[in-house]
Amino acid sequence: MTEHFITFKNFPTRIQAKELEILLDRNNIKSVLADNIAPVDITFSGSTLQNQYEIKIDPADFAKAEAILEKDTESILNEVDKDYYLLSFSDEELYDVLLKSDEWNVFDYKLAQKLLIERGKNIDSEMLASLKKERLQILAKPEEPQKSWITVGYIFSLLGGFLGIIIGYLLWTSKKTLPNGERIYSYNEDDRKHGKTIFILGTIIFPLALLIKILTSEKF
Question: Could you count the other beta carbons within 10 Å of the beta carbon of residue 76?
Fold first, then answer.
């Protein structure tokens, strides 16, 4: 039932993840707490996982869960320390927090709104929705062309290396999750076509190369 759940939030500690799990449960949103071991769809661009725990939920519940988390955070906005780093941000930097909300925690996102309003800026739901839409369009763009990995993939596949199969499979099938829970392919259509070709070549050549190696070794 939870097989299709995907990561909603990452946390450095299990305690933080558990707090969100409890909050979602109180609001009738089913979730799963898990260690975020490196996923299959990690990109070739050097992405690494820094958080150790994640909360997974149904993609259909992303918007509802985000709204619940934001509402829960509003109650502690006035408790911020006087030396909290966000208080020294310029208006432009605070707007950047609003635009890139997926890169910040919910507290910072809500505090950025509060600070801008206190500075006389017009922050309303329509503007926030527009920023989120703009951010989704940016994040939905495919990764940069993977020319180097495509070349390496072809070489390994043609040489009978199993690594070629792995590279081809990742280029062909890797996906990323947008902040709204939508899953899209990480790479452009051309790179994915190359990935599929590399994968097929590898699955054909690798067993043949392995068979030849076995037969050759038996002769000696």
Answer: 11
**What Cα–Cα distance (Å) separates residue 220 from each residue in 174, 216, 217?**
42, 7, 5
C-alpha span between 102 and 10 (Å, rounded): 11
Strands in the chain per DSSP E: 6-11, 31-35, 53-57, 175-177, 183-185
Q: Which residues pair with 37 in a beta bridge?
A: none
Instruction: Judge whether residue 42 has pLDDT over 90.
Output: no
The pTM of the full predicted model, rounded to 2 decimals, is 0.73
Query: pLDDT tens-digit profile of 46-99?
Result: 444 456 899 999 999 999 999 999 999 988 898 888 899 999 999 999 999 999
Torsion of CA 201, 204, 209, 215, to 10 degrees: -170
CA distance 184 to 181: 10
Contacts of 139 (CB under 8 A, 6+ apart): 102, 176, 178, 179
Buried b (16+ CB within 10 A) or exposed e, 161-193: beebbbbbbbbbbbebbbbebeeebbbeeebbe
Instruction: Kindly report each contact of residues 190-197 with a partner whose C-beta sits within 8 Å and lies 24 or more positions away, as own/partner.
Output: 190/145, 191/142, 191/145, 191/146, 191/150, 194/150, 194/153, 194/154, 194/168, 195/150, 195/153, 195/167, 195/168, 195/169, 195/170, 195/171, 196/168, 196/172, 197/168
- Give residue-wise pLDDT tens across range 180-201: 889 999 999 999 999 999 999 9
